[in-house]
Design goal:
Layout: H1 2-27, H2 33-39, H3 44-68, H4 75-84, H5 88-97, H6 101-111, H7 117-135, H8 139-170, H9 177-231
Protein name: MotA/TolQ/ExbB proton channel family protein
Main location: membrane
Domain MotA/TolQ/ExbB proton channel: 98-220
Length: 235
Amino acid sequence: MNAFLLQITTSAPVDTTAAATPGAEATQETVSLLDLAMAGGWAMIPLILLSLVAIYIFVERYLTIKKASQNPAGFIGRLKSLVLAGDVQGARMLCAQTNSPISRMLEKGISRIGQPLKSIEASIENVGKIEIARLEKGLSGLATVAGAAPMLGFLGTVTGMIGAFIAIAQAEGTISPKLLSSGIYEAMVTTATGLIIGLPAYVGYNFLVSKIDSIVHDMEHSSIEFIDLLQEPQA
């Protein structure tokens, strides 16, 4: 009996060490981002293209809107002094030298000086609509990316799950947990990627819209000041 107990105590450490070795090796296994991207399947290709489109639209629109929002200090003041002095040609030259939606809008109004006030207001309003349309160009594409990327990610997940269950159905014998888990995480990669692309695109779209709204407010304020300026000499 003592000999039997002695054999158990001497063999136990060997079994514990052997059992611990696979666990130690498992903790060292890592999955790179490239491996995850490759595991996403076909849906990763259009998702990557959508991400590139979103980056291009945001950067291009941001630079355009930032340039349009720059209004040189004293522009409205100098324009007022030239108009009140009757120097219409000088006021038009000042607007032509200032590259901004406000200057182009007011230049059209200055060119209509002498006509009825309604005609001047209409010309300013028409140019303002054109300038706003230029600022909003491409934003619909960014909004499309913000909505399409998550949906495309979900579609990739659904198709991936279908493929995983097909593989499980076709498997013979006992289903391996590794087969099930790998199929699920590969399918979920597309959902995560779609959300990672869609959320920044949505935030970027609203950010640019807020910037455009600020420019539109400045344009409206400037047009009102200009119309009031034309009425001052008649007072």
